[in-house]
């Protein structure tokens, strides 16, 4: 679900997670770096006209282990919802083919590495 504003009204709508611009022949995009999304050719139009908020219970981080990659589900300590910045192909109430939204992310500052032992292993 995606929370967005159009014509002065708030909308909470089901929207496909992932963005694949026209003539894009690579894998579906799911994230955009906040440091470059506003100026990059792929995400600039979305940044200008398709900003939104995505509620979530948490997210997965992957850690390398001796057994391969291990997913860890990260969530708020009090289990309150989290809200992620997103950009997507607006208006969100129309079909756009394979165009939906991406989560806006930032570069890691190594903050999760020291807390990994506190995270519950995913089942």
3D structure, described in words:
With 123 residues, the protein is mainly β. It has one domain: Alpha-Beta Complex (hypothetical protein yedk fold), CATH 3.90.1680. The chain has 1 helix and 9 strands; from the N terminus they run βββαββββββ. The chain has a 4-stranded mixed sheet. β1 and β2 form a beta hairpin. It is globular, with a radius of gyration of 16 Å.
Give structural attributes.
mainly beta, 123 residues, disordered C terminus, 4-stranded mixed sheet, 3-stranded antiparallel sheet, hypothetical protein yedk fold
In short:
The protein is 5% helix and 40% strand. With 123 residues, it is mainly beta.
List the helices and strands and how they pair.
Blueprint: E1 2-6, E2 9-13, E3 31-33, H1 44-49, E4 51-56, E5 58-65, E6 68-75, E7 82-88, E8 101-105, E9 120-121
Parallel strand pairs: 3-8
Antiparallel strand pairs: 1-2, 4-7, 5-6, 6-9, 7-8
Average pLDDT score = 84
The total beta strand count reads 9
CATH fold-level label: hypothetical protein yedk fold
Could you give me the name of the CATH homologous superfamily?
A: SOS response associated peptidase-like
Spatial arrangement of strands, main beta sheet = 3-8-7-4
Number of domains: 1
Order of helices and strands: EEEHEEEEEE
The CATH C-level class name: Alpha Beta
The major sheet is characterized as: 4 strands, mixed
Number of helices: 1
**Helical percent range?**
under 10%
